Amino acid sequence: MRSALLGDAAAYQRFLGDVAPHLRASARRGCNRYGLPSADAEDVVQEVLLAVHLKRGSWDINRPIGPWLSVILRHKLIDQLRRRGRSVSVPIEDVAELIGTEENGEAEDLRDAERLVGKLKDSQQEIVRSISLEGKDVRETAERLQMSEGAVRVSLHRALKALAGFYRASLDERGEQ
């Protein structure tokens, strides 16, 4: 997958061919575990492969791919259960290794967010920090900044649009499209 993300189409085809049998086996086990018909396993695998294709740019090449694939598979199994009208209960043991956080990763994410927010105009920075980071509502933010609520909403919308552009540009710089 790493080579595929760097533009090697043949590597991407090999990756899909290599991972599909593992996904099928895991999907069959998941269908058995959650009481789905085994025939649903192939549908789940196809949905996982499509999700992998669409979201491959979101995979962090510095992390193992197995947990990323497992999360996608689990979500597609849950989607299949929902389509059949079943409630979902996943034992904590099944996801324990996935919900642990890495403090370094969180700190790095916070630094990245602060770097991007720092590129905004000062007033937009205040609004984004107030609403998105501090959890204040629009009214509180508007009163504190002596602005109308409408102006705060418009500024927040523009700031978030700018942040999305900054984020896309940073991905382009790193070659992570």
What general form does the structure show?
elongated
- What is the averaged pLDDT score? 82
How many domain modules? 2
Number of helices: 9
DSSP strand count: 0
Q: Return the string of H and E elements.
A: HHHHHHHHH
Please state the structural category: mainly alpha
Task: Round the Cα radius of gyration to an integer and report it.
Answer: 21 Å
Structure write-up:
- By secondary structure, the protein is an all-alpha fold.
- It is built from 9 helices and no strands.
- It has helices spanning 2-5, 9-33, 40-55, 65-83, 92-99, 103-117, 122-133, 138-145, 149-174.
- The longest helix has 26 residues, at 149-174.
- The mean pLDDT is 82.
Give the key terms.
177 residues; mainly alpha; Rna Polymerase Sigma Factor, Chain: A; Arc Repressor Mutant, subunit A; 9 helices; 75% helix
Quick recap:
Helices cover 75% and strands 0% of the residues. The protein is mainly α and 177 residues long.
